[in-house]
From TrEMBL:
InterPro entries: Adenyl_kin_sub, Adenylat/UMP-CMP_kin, Adenylat_kinase_CS, Adenylate_kinase_lid-dom, P-loop_NTPase
Name of the protein described by the UniProt record: Unannotated protein
Organism ancestry: unclassified sequences, metagenomes, ecological metagenomes
Pfam families for this protein: ADK, ADK_lid
Organism the protein comes from: freshwater metagenome
Alphabetic keyword roster: Kinase, Nucleotide-binding, Transferase
Length: 215
């Protein structure tokens, strides 16, 4: 039976790594809000055209458009046959309530990593300015901050400064934490310790999901 999963976690909690692994393990497409919006814009769908107009004007895409784009994506054949792993959606309780009208969720995963650890991880993060490959001050590229993959400069993103990270963490606590609470109240949440090696975390997450799906 296809797994229909959501993954939550503060930036720096390791969602990207775990999402790739979970998608491969369960055969469920890994879908992010950004990917969905870009695909809708590129395809020129009515919702994509509407979203592009908002973004080109510097505005934030509203819940009605985002929910419409999500509904379209979740109706596609790969999702119907393989389920989904949604990353970065829903961000708010309004979005969670809206999605409940057209999609069933089997399990919501909360990767629990303390804020001080996230701050340390994100402050140490470095990113290739061209291909986006991620490094850290503890695990730098081989050749003097030139990307191992493409040779471009590896830099610290402007939004990875301590001040910018603190703002994102505050926004997460204000907007996303109530959404996590929403799924906990619905009995769908599994909270997993996000500390440790990627392999250790993956093992814990899969065990928690399988226990939830077997109920």
């Amino acid at each position: 039976m296809p797994a229909r999963l959501l993954i939550f976690g503060r930036q720096g909690a390791g969602k990207g790594t775990q999402s790739e692994r979970l998608s491969a393990h369960y055969g469920a497409p890994h879908i992010s809000t950004g990917d969905m919006l870009r695909a809708a814009v590129a395809a020129g769908t009515p919702l994509g055209i509407e979203a592009k107009a908002v973004m080109d004007g510097g505005g934030l895409v509203g819940d009605d458009i985002i929910l419409g784009v999500v509904a379209e994506r979740l109706s596609e054949p790969d999702v119907q046959s393989g389920g989904f792993l949604l990353d970065g959606f829903p961000r708010t309780v309004v979005q969670a309530e809206g999605m409940a009208k057209f999609a069933t969720v089997d399990c919501a995963i909360d990767l629990a990593v303390p804020e001080d650890v996230v701050l340390e991880r994100m402050s140490a993060r470095r990113v290739c300015s061209s291909c986006g490959r991620v490094y850290s001050t503890a695990m730098p590229p081989v050749n003097d901050w030139a990307c191992d993959n493409c040779g471009a400069d590896v830099v610290q993103r402007a939004d990875d400064t301590p001040e910018a990270i603190a703002k994102r963490l505050a926004a997460y606590n204000t907007e996303t934490q109530p959404t996590i609470d929403f799924y906990e109240a619905a009995g769908l949440l599994v909270r997993v310790d996000g500390l440790g090696s990627p392999d250790e975390v993956t093992g814990r997450v899969i065990a928690a999901i399988d226990a939830r799906l077997s109920r």
